[in-house]
């Protein structure tokens, strides 16, 4: 018979469900050496709601919470701010793990679940490096404009995106002069820049065209491009 540790509301169950793709994404990003677990605290006997790289511990969905995780949960619940805890521990066979336990708050700020991440230090360093660096660095040349822009404010983000797009379009001799602005707006639209506040006005000003012209191009793109 399942014993409930806490009873979750429907909203809290939805909150935990929303963390499943987070756990899957973390596992994919971090790589083989990391075990990532989502715990649902409604039933401690079957708390594992999602797990990536569970082969390290032999656990699967529906497995129980561990004694150490219970201790971390108690420590977090007794803290004032419910902060995550990072620590080293050992598997039964002596393998050292670098771990972190991250609480998931529900209604009333009570803890309804946890994300636990375990790095298994016995994994070869070469494997870790291979997963962090492309096997063929030359392959990155196929994506010369795939960059991420880090800025302190939205204005700088718009300016950086516009500068990058203008550089590409204005130097593309296959695009006629009359279509340069249209193609710039198209490229910015595909980047999602026009979801930012006042982006249409700022782009129109930098391109020395009216905002109505920018809006016209956007309307046409919405009709032409698939959702």
Please tell me about this protein's structure.
With 227 residues, the chain is of the alpha+beta class. It is built from 8 helices and 5 strands, in the order H-H-E-E-H-E-E-E-H-H-H-H-H. A 5-stranded antiparallel β-sheet has the order 2-1-5-4-3, with helices on both faces. Helix 6 packs across helix 8 and helix 7 crosses helix 8. The chain is elongated, with a radius of gyration of 25 Å. It starts with 9 loop residues before the first helix and ends with a helix. The model has no long low-confidence stretch (mean pLDDT 87).
Count of helical stretches: 8
Amino-to-carboxy terminus distance: 48 Å
What sort of overall outline do the alpha carbons produce when their principal axes are compared? Answer: elongated
Instruction: List the secondary-structure elements in sequence, H or E.
Output: HHEEHEEEHHHHH
**Could you describe the largest sheet, including whether it forms a barrel?**
5 strands, antiparallel
How is the largest sheet built, in terms of strand order?
2-1-5-4-3
Radius of gyration using CA atoms only: 25 Å
Tell me the strand percentage band: 15-25%
Count of strand segments: 5
Helix fraction by DSSP (H/I, runs of at least 4) = 40-55%
- What structural category arises from helix and sheet content? alpha+beta
Mean pLDDT: 87
